[in-house]
Design brief:
Layout (H helix, E strand, L loop, with lengths): L2 H23 L12 H18 L1 H17 L8 H8 L5 H6 L1
Helix pairs in contact: 1-2, 1-3, 1-4, 2-3
């Protein structure tokens, strides 16, 4: 297994769990809004980065880490970001809404 594959599977897992569990709990989405394209996209990204890792290993692993940071901070799919949902779940206000005022 390539070094980037575990990171990419973590990215797909975080996105899927965010849309299925955390978004409905924090009222940022519903289970019926699950974006099923996350599963094949995760597989395609894992295969693509595994192929790229044969040519440029450190670049492919760096892209995998960047995708992990991006999935935590940029809203993908039908739910808000995992960090926003986590903040709401903990009972805090959304900091981006506080700063906008």
């Amino acid at each position: 297994m390539a070094r980037s594959t575990g990171i990419v599977l973590t990215v797909g897992g975080i996105t899927a769990v965010n849309e299925v569990f955390f978004a409905p709990i924090t009222n940022h989405g519903a289970v019926k809004d699950f974006n099923w394209r996350i599963i094949p996209a995760t597989g395609a990204l894992a295969l693509g980065l595994a192929g790229l890792e044969r040519v440029a290993p450190s670049f492919a692993v760096g892209l995998a880490w960047l995708s992990l940071v991006a999935v935590l901070t940029i809203p993908f799919g039908n739910a808000s970001t995992p960090l926003d949902n986590f903040i709401s779940l903990m009972g805090y206000q959304n900091p981006s809404k506080e700063w906008a005022q």
